Amino acid sequence: MTVYFIGAGPGAADLITVRGARILGTSPVCLYAGSLVPRDLLAACPADARLVDTALLDIDQITAELVRAHREGHDVARLHSGDPSVFSAVNEQMRRLDEAGVPYEVVPGVPAFAAAAAALKRELTVPTVGQTVILTRIAQQATAMPEGEDLATLGRSGALLVLHLAARYVDRVVDELLPHYGADCPAAVVAMASRPDEIVLRGTLDDIAEQVKSAGVVRTAVIMVGRTLGAEQFRDSHLYSPARDRHTC
């Protein structure tokens, strides 16, 4: 049997992929993080499915559940919020399944930063303004950042920064980015992207921290900082340009 690591998307139940929903609807066992995955998604599970909330389980307990289901001959839908490719803690689970000889597949999902961009109605890459997006986080007591990946270093690029897991440290984010982006640089925070209680904050590095604190946002949010967020005057993309020869490759 197979363990399916499924990107459940940013929150809205209808933003899971068709493939993810199909697997979820046929798997006898489903593991999900109750603190992150909305209960609406679980309605797609079989009526008699065994549902396991992993919010209070450690990595060994989660692995034991996956191995148990495999040995019992059951496929497992392992739901992860957003997309498993970033900040999902899926690597350590796959490593343990490799050691246990349990087969698995990964089903991609809609990442939180994409849902946040949709909420802002913004393309994150804009011709002549910015063509680079950096997904990152900040060092915390639990997990340090590798050398050279601190905000001061990344900020020198001038690229659009998307920070996960950093809303509660917004003052620190602003302090570290101000020297590189300037107080007037557009900034935004989207919390609970795509959900009914979605919060969208728009501003600059000068005022975004106060907005975040006033709104009470401390988790399930992404912070975006960069000039493309406020770009209005820019050259059209060559992709649809009337001057482009569409008869050549």
From TrEMBL:
UniProt keyword list: Cobalamin biosynthesis, Methyltransferase, S-adenosyl-L-methionine, Transferase
EC number in record: 2.1.1.133
GO molecular function annotations of the record: precorrin-4 C11-methyltransferase activity
Record-linked InterPro entries: 4pyrrol_Mease (IPR000878), 4pyrrol_Methylase_sf (IPR035996), 4pyrrole_Mease_sub1 (IPR014777), 4pyrrole_Mease_sub2 (IPR014776), Cbl_synth_CobM/CibF (IPR006362), Siro_Cobalamin_biosynth (IPR050161), Uropor_MeTrfase_CS (IPR003043)
CDD domains given in the database record: Precorrin-4_C11-MT (cd11641)
Pathway: Cofactor biosynthesis; adenosylcobalamin biosynthesis
Keyword Nucleotide-binding tagged: no
PROSITE patterns in the record: SUMT_1 (PS00839), SUMT_2 (PS00840)
Residue ranges of domain Tetrapyrrole methylase in the record: 2-208
GO terms classed as biological process: methylation
Entry annotated with the keyword Membrane: no
Pfam families (UniProt xref): TP_methylase
Membrane-spanning segments: none
Superkingdom, taxonomy of origin: Bacteria
NCBIfam families linked to this entry: cobM_cbiF (TIGR01465)
Family from the record: Belongs to the precorrin methyltransferase family.
Name assigned to this protein: Precorrin-4 C(11)-methyltransferase
Record organism: Streptomyces argenteolus
